[in-house]
């Protein structure tokens, strides 16, 4: 081995070795760091999840406090009733559960396959019939039907409360079970029409039908509440027309009464029309 | 010899005390540079044991090897060829060679 005598050479070797050692440790440190990055991300995410969950629980508690604390007595009762009417509460009671499923029959040659499946129109007719028979709360596949609910065809599915639903459809309705069932099974009524195409319909009467609350969002973007002043203005303006309107109202009532007799007859006609046309 | 060991220790301590780390983008360059540095260090050790150590050759070898290996690595990444593997392979082989010679020289004594 050569013994280095020169001072400058010693210093340079010293420096080179410092660089080397520095590089070695940096490399090791970086290597560990890379491995930790994935783990750190998972840790960060779990910490954030915990924070958000805590926030959520806190806000839920606050909401509960506000809902429970602010109003009391009659106001609370009034609010509960309004909520129930608006479909904001889960409800239970006597009623029927109707299950509808697409037909399993093979379509005959030359026949439209669409006749064998359930459409939005079929559901609309069923729901309409149930409402006519006095159903107090209706849900379709767990979607509460309220005033603004739509039943609309979107491709192979049906859009209800802005949610896509597919067959089988389970319609729960609270009301007088007898009335509801007989309304559906009326001769020439909705279900008889389904039977012709093999669409399965099963009505079950039950003492405790559950209808969930409306879960969607509703905001009034265009509609505004009338203030008291405006109401007075309009009522004053309408005061002159009142006699005429009373007559009109009476006429409307008469027409409605006639219509009430009408539906079964009208329906019979239409259903015959449809089945007759298909034959 | 003792200066080399002390320098190494100082370097390691400095590395530990330095905050931060090499960004992942530069990781291949850095590892290749480290390999070149190690190769030159072992080469220098071998030369000193054989008795023909030259300070200028050692120092120039140290820096030129590092620069060349990093450049090769960069070129490889630019051309989408894994050049850094070749660099590491060659340097690794040289390190083994040097170590084998050092070992033999040490045993001969």
Can you characterise this structure?
The complex is a heterodimer of chains A (279) and B (109). Helices cover 56% and strands 17% of the residues of chain A. Chain A is built from seven helices and eight strands. In chain A, the strands form two sheets. A five-stranded antiparallel β-sheet of chain A has the order 3-2-7-1-8. In chain A, strands 4-5-6 form a three-stranded antiparallel β-sheet, covered by helices on one side. In chain A, strand 2 and strand 3 form a beta hairpin. Chain A starts with 6 loop residues before the first helix and ends with a helix. Chain B is an all-alpha fold. In chain B, 83% of the residues lie in helices and 0% in strands. Chain B contains four helices and no strands. Chain B has helices at residues 2-17, 27-50, 55-79, 83-108. At the A-B interface, helix 1 of A face helix 1, helix 2 and helix 3 of B.
List its salient traits.
heterodimer, A: about 280 residues, alpha+beta, Alpha-Beta Plaits, 3-stranded antiparallel β-sheet, elongated, B: about 110 residues, mainly alpha
């Amino acid at each position: 081995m050569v013994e280095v005598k020169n001072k400058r050479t010693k210093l340079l070797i010293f420096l080179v070795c410092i660089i080397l050692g520095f590089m070695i440790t940096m490399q090791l440190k970086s290597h560990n760091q890379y491995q930790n990055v994935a783990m750190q991300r998972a840790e960060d995410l779990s910490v954030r999840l915990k924070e958000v969950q805590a926030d959520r629980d806190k806000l839920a508690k606050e909401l509960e406090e506000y809902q429970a604390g602010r109003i009391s007595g009659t106001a609370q009762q009034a609010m509960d009733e309004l909520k129930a009417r608006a479909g904001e509460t889960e409800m239970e009671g006597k009623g029927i559960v109707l299950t509808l499923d697409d037909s399993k029959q093979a379509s005959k040659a030359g026949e439209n396959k669409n006749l064998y499946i359930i459409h939005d129109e079929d559901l609309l007719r069923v729901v309409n019939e149930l409402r006519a028979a006095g159903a107090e709360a209706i849900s379709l596949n767990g979607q509460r039907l309220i005033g603004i609910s739509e039943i609309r065809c979107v491709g192979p599915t049906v859009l209800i409360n802005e949610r896509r639903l597919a067959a089988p459809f389970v319609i729960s309705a609270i009301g007088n079970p007898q009335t509801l069932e007989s309304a559906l099974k009326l001769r020439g009524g909705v279900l008889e029409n389904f039977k012709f195409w093999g669409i399965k319909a099963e009505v079950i009467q039950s003492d405790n039908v559950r209808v969930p609350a409306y879960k969607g969002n509703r905001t009034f973007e265009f509609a505004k509440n009338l203030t008291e002043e405006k109401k007075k203005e309009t009522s004053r303006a309408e005061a002159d027309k009142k006699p005429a309107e009373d007559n009109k109202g009476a006429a409307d009532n008469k027409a409605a009464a006639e219509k009430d007799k009408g539906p079964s007859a009208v329906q019979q006609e239409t259903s015959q029309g449809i089945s007759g046309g298909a034959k | 010899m003792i200066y080399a060991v002390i320098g190494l220790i100082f370097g390691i301590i400095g590395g530990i005390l330095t905050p931060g780390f090499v960004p992942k983008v530069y990781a291949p360059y850095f590892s290749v540079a480290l390999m070149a540095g190690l190769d030159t260090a072992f080469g220098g050790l071998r030369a000193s044991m054989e008795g023909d150590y030259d300070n200028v050759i050692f120092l120039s070898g140290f820096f030129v090897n590092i620069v060349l290996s990093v450049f090769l690595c960069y070129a490889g990444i630019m051309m989408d060829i894994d050049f850094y593997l070749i660099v590491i392979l060659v340097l690794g082989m040289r390190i083994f060679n040097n170590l084998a010679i050092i070992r033999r020289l040490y045993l001969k004594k």
